[in-house]
Amino acid sequence: MYRPRNRHHDHYHHLVLVLLVLALLNLQSIKPTTATFVLSGQQNGDQRQNTPSSRELTRKTALHASRSRRSFVASTAAIVTSSLLVEFPTSPSSPGNSVANAVDIKVTPMAHTFVTGITKGQGVVKPTRENDFTRFLTNAKVVLLFTGDGSTGGEQEVTKLTKERKAGEGPGVTPGNIVMSAANKVTSLEKEVSSLGKGDTLIVTIPSASFAGDRKAAADSATSLGLFLGGAKEGGVVSVLVDGSKSVTIEESGYDLLWYSLSR
Fold first, then answer.
1. Are residues 115 and 223 in the same domain?
2. Whether residues 108 and 222 fall in one domain
3. Residue 94 resides in a domain
4. Which of 41, 122, 157, 190 minimizes the number of CB atoms within 10 Å of its CB?
């Protein structure tokens, strides 16, 4: 399975360190300020009784500085906490999370194809371009297209685009042919796979059973064919959910790619 790198890992730690340093510098720079006032008396009467004493002004100024420090530290702590929450999401195995978390897919005209992975024990879904989506498929030995209940020919569109990408070759595409399997299940694919030419890709369309069922089917297929699961490198078995649920539990399903037709 494709496992995207967490490229922002170091950035979050740097952000936390910078914020903490800023907090310490601010604490050192904010000091109580003592104001000196020259009180002048007049010959006809002393007006100092209505003027705040120097001691009182010093106390009020120190109190203001103390409140400023507390406000700054509180806001800085809130930012640091937010950064930590973004960097370290709650793992499904943590207390209070007895089941894996479903990822709600947001499909838009600009993002209807997705690549998946698991990091820190949690499913991750990232939008990917159609061009990159089909490139994953052209590099696989076997592509399993699991079609959802609401499929409206999405598998045909995926197959068409993959054939075009394979024929056009280009950077990152394994040269070869797209072969459509006559089977509608993942078993007994050995003969078809053994007859593939160098760089050829076998596409198998299968009705989706369930997340767990599809995951087991893909794993059993890879084992029986002596291949590996995922699209991290060419020559493996890549599983795709086509027009399935938009609330997907990656940890339980094991799909490498997700496709949602815009016509749905």
1. yes
2. yes
3. no
4. 41
Q: Determine the Cα–Cα distance for residues 21 and 19; give it in Å rounded to an integer.
A: 5
pLDDT the model gives residue 90: 33
Q: Which helix (H) or strand (E) holds 130?
A: helix 130-138
Please list the rounded mean pLDDT of every run of 10 residues in the chain (264 residues).
Answer: 46 54 53 38 44 52 51 40 29 40 90 91 91 95 91 88 93 94 87 95 94 95 94 92 94 94 80
Q: Which of 41, 56, 87 is the last residue of a domain?
A: 87
Encoded tokens for 57: 């002004």
What total of structural domains would you count in the chain?
2
Same domain, 167 and 251: yes
pLDDT for the residue numbered 4:
47
Q: In which region does residue 92 sit, left (phi positive, over 0), alpha (psi from -120 to 50) or beta (all else)?
A: alpha
Same domain, 248 and 121: yes
Check: CB of residue 251 under 8 Å from CB of residue 103.
Answer: no
Look up residue 149 and give its amino acid: D
What is the distance between the alpha carbons of residues 198 and 195, in angstroms, rounded to a whole number?
10
Do residues 260 and 133 touch, judged by C-beta distance below 8 A? no
Which range of residues forms the domain containing residue 253? 103-259
